Every structure is written in structure tokens, then in C-alpha cells.
Model the fold of this input.
Amino acid sequence: MDPRLDDDLVQLPDLLKETQEHAVRLLEGLAERPVAPPPGRREPVALPERGEGARGALEAFARRWEPGFSASAGPRYLGFVTGGSTPAALAGDWLTGALDQNVVGDLDSAAAGLERETVSWLRELLGLPVAYEGAFVSGATMSNVTGLAIAREWIGERRGVSVAEQGLAALGPVRVLSGSPHSSIGKALSVLGLGRSALRRVESLPGREAVDVDRLAEALRELDGEPAIVVANAGTVNTVDYDDLRAIAALRERHPFWLHVDAAFGAFAALSPEHAHLVDGLGEADSICVDLHKWLNVPYDSAVQLTRRRDLQARVFQNSAAYLGAVGDDPDFVHLTPENSRRLRALAAWFTLAAYGREGHAEIVRRDVALAARLGERLAAMPAYRLLAPVRLNVVCFTVAADPSRADEVARAVAASGEAFVTPTVYAGVPALRAAFSNWRTTEADVERVAEALARAAG
Done:
């Protein structure tokens, strides 16, 4: 054994304790750490010929790289839609690395059983029927890829072919309809060979990102009975708008289509009594995307995909190898996702759900919604800014009132201040900014600091 590796094995308890102490210092300093320091570019150094051992690696990381890392786990990182890691989720994630399980099936570990239990807890949390089965994947993009791959196989089933066996050439063209699809939908269609051009954007309601169901019905009618895929939104990224899921599902009485719902973070509206109506009809979908490293506040990378048609899912993703066993009626996870090797992503989610339950996570959702509304009120009172949409849930979409083209400049100024991080975007053709609340740590005091930083950045 390499002497440094052998020495680290002997000192492993002390090394883990030192790493824990280092992590605790990082977490205790999150509130004051620069939220998004300009990372710059560093030239890679040469690979060490002889390593420095784990303690030396920790010291090198702390010196060379850690100062440039963002405080994305902290309370004022409002960019993208990023949660943090609850204490229990962090503990689960640490154990994930320590246990190092490859969750392919039930042959050698109870890990697959824990993942199935976690999926069932998530189904209960979101109020979905027991008909939904699911698996953990890396994020919303891979969840959308998986759901749309099942949809592609369903289209083939309607046309009497199996894309999984015969390939895309046997399928023919496919039409995908959506009002305001997330960018990952186009990426998924590209990966799946359907092509970005398969996506047809259907007109939204006036002043909204929600699809006009009447226009969607017209688009389906034009297909003259050909099966299609409809991608509906349960929470758009700019304004957290929701399609009328129940009205869309009702169109299946007249038109054949697979309903995939992108509910990456919007599904968690189910935990707020005042907003649960927004996801009414989610249980009518054929497949659902839910991202967990957003509002469930577990570490990256973690999402779940859910579907009613696990048989089609296994047809797409089955892995034929004698040592993996037959697919059967209850397929192992190796037959259900694009990955063969899979880390136990479910453990962090299991920990946070076991630790805080429905009530704890509902409190996070309610608080973040209230804080987003508070920032919206503060911005509405500032002459320098203009809200571009109502604050429907946990995202505030706004622009610089006098000169929207300054949105990027303001975002950079806020980041440079170290006080907060918001992301630039474009909404309805207007350069804009987004502040997304999904972190379990964020408080009213953080909202005030963000508002003050935005006021200063506006000049």
C-alpha cells in the first residue's frame, strides 16, 4: 500500500474529525461569507508526483480553491432556484459517501429498498396517487430526459413499434407541444433524437407564462388523431406560473397525448395550503419531474422522476446482462434510469424527510413564499425597480425601471458587494432579474440585506 494511503487509513478518525471541524467553520461563516465572489480563472498546476496525503489535500484546497467558492448553501444566494442542505440532509450525504453504495438492485444491499421508501414518502408529501413509481436521477434535466424517453416509447406503442428495439427510424415524426417549456426540454429532445424542432410552442394566456388551453386544444386538433407529447409546467422559472393541469388532462378525452409535467420546484406548492390549488391535477400526469436539490434542500445532485408506466420505462432503460438478472415485473433500478452505476442519492432525502417530516418542510415552503412576497413589496416601493409579474410563489421577477438594459450590470454589482446573488434573465423580451427563494436558512433579516444591496446597486 502507498505509504501516504496507509498513513491516512491509520489516521482516518482524526482526518474525518478535522474535515468535520473545517466544514463546521464554513457553515458557521455562511451568513457573512461573500455570496458570489468573482471566481476568475486559475491555471491548473501539475499533477503531484507524490501526493501530500488527505491532510495536505485539505490544506491545499482551503488555500487555492475554497476562497473562490460561492455561499450557495447560504441564505442570500437567490440565483437560479437553489436550495441549501438541511442539517439532516448533510448528515445523510456524508453517510452516502462513507457507505458508497451502488444502487443497482437488491442483490447485495438494502439501499434499493431505502430508495423505494424515499420515493413513496415523496409521493405522499406531494399528494400523488400510489400508481406513481419513480427513481432518483441527477437533476431536473435528467428527470425530464427520462420522462420524455418513456413518452417516446408510448408514442411508439400507439404506432405499433418499439423505439427501444427498432430505433427512431421506425417511429416517424413526433410533435411535442408546450406553452413555456424550460430550456432542459429542448436539451432532452435533442438527446433523445426527437430534435429540438419537434417542439412547438403554444400561445400563452395574455400576460402569463401559462399555456392557453384553447390554443393547445386547437394544436392537438390539427394533429388529426396522431399521438403527441404535451409538456405542461407546474412553476415556470421566471414567474412561477402554472398551467391548468386538470383542464389539459381533460383534453385526453378527445386527443391522444402523453402528459409530462415539469414540476421541478413548483410541485412543492402542495405543501402550502394557500397555494396547493396550483398543482391541482398533477396526479393526472403520465410522468412528472421533481427536483430535490431545489426546495427539498438536499445537496446536489438529486431529483426524482415519477411515472404511471414503469413497464415502458423498463423497456427503454433495461440493461441486458446475466449478472444483473431479468427485468421482471418489479425491475431493479439498473433497468429504470440512464445510469447503471448510481450513488445512493436517496439517503440525503430520506434523512431530511425522516428528520423534519411534512411539517418541517412545509414550514420552509411557507416561509420562503412569504419572504419572496416581502422582497416583492420592497422592490415595488423602490422607484429604481419595476416588478414584471406578480410574486406568485417563491420567485421575484423585476427589472431596472429606467433602463432594463442595466439588469446585467446590477446583477454583477450585487454579486460584487458580497451581499447577495440574483440571476439575470429575459422575460417577455425585457432584460430582467430573478430572485428565487428556496433555502431553509433565509430570514426576514436576509431579505432586508438583499433589498438594501439592490437599492445600492441601482445607483
